[in-house]
Task: structure prediction
Amino acid sequence: MSELKNDLLLKALKGETVSRPPVWMMRQAGRYLPDYIKLREKYDFFTRVETPELACEITLQPVDQVGVDAAIIFSDILVIPQAMGMKVLMEEGKGPLLPNVIKTKADIEALITTEVEERLGYVMAALSLTKKELNGRVPLIGFAGAPWTLLCYMIEGKGSKTFDKAKQFCFTQPELAHALLQKITDVTISYLKAQVNAGADMVQVFDSWSGMLSPADFKLFAQPYLIQIADAVSKHAPVILFPKGSWYALSDLSKSSAAGLGLDWSVTPQLARQMTNNSITLQGNFDPSKLLAPIKQIKKEVTEMIDAFGTQRYIANLGHGILPNVPVDHARAFVDAVKEYGDKSKV
Ligand code: CP3
Result:
């Protein structure tokens, strides 16, 4: 394996001194990039995900075109429910659809939990190929959905403003919910370890819908599983947990074996640092919609964000995925502003 020429991200995660904070963007490989849209016209979503050459090409686009300090493998969190035997459709422009949702104990028992590495062999092939093509330019990030967020899709069958069916399932049949969450956790641990073996330098766990839960319910249905994953996978590579909307859990999660915590824009850098006692690397938390503001304003607010977080133990990122209607030069301005902050602090 070639040595990394840009190891800012890994250094920041280890708490080592960096010349400037590393920067990448959640969902950086995607629909705001014209070259991605061209590929989308030719191949459907799961063809793009399951063909290592296409996944690799898409993963490299933001590295080449926007200048981020890390690549995140092009895939989706819903490959896990798929590997567990559920049908997952991606309706272009509409989002995911799982036509046969989990309803009963028998449905949970029927889920497949073995041979994840083989069943998701195409992800490992995409990682190995991308690692080779990157040739050490920047680190490669692997990822998975958190158990709670995957349960949301497996029970609800699609996106939702409230995920009330998923919650109803947890609140009325907690034993079944925990059985399902544990199965997803076990599979996710194997999957993330396999990603590291295949070339991922670190992994992120996306709990996109954890903020739907009250602090007490987060402690029941989300936190224990996030911690299990962090404990098991951290032995192999640094883990970032991103519990979107769950700023209330920062203190507890900072005591886990995770190397970093992702933040959305609902929390101030000051509060996040205070709650985590300055003991863990923080990542975030620029409002993705702010990338629609004029470039001058983006640059000013990025500078203010870094001033507030500090340059150490910090990874500049958005507070959630980049939006499809962001102009590429605005995405680039975000990345450049972080890089220029570094230049400024050197003089
Ligand atoms: O970050 C990256 O650049 C890597 C690629 C990536 C995708 N999905 C590709 C994708 C990652 C990290 C994901 C994670 C993901 N998928 C999450 C967690 C992160 C988040 O945004 O909260 C979630 C909740 C999903 C499920 C999912 N996949 C939804 C809800 C949708 C449709 C709506 C949307 O956001 O686009 C997808 C489709 C999807 N996954 C697209 C991409 C680029 C868009 C589909 C297309 O290009 O046609």
Summary: Residues 174-198 form the longest helix (25 residues). The pocket of coproporphyrinogen III is lined by residues 26-31, 40, 45, 72, 74, 76-78, 90, 92, 95-96, 143, 159, 206, 208, 321 (CB under 6 Å). The chain has one domain: 8-341. The two ends are 35 Å apart (CA to CA).
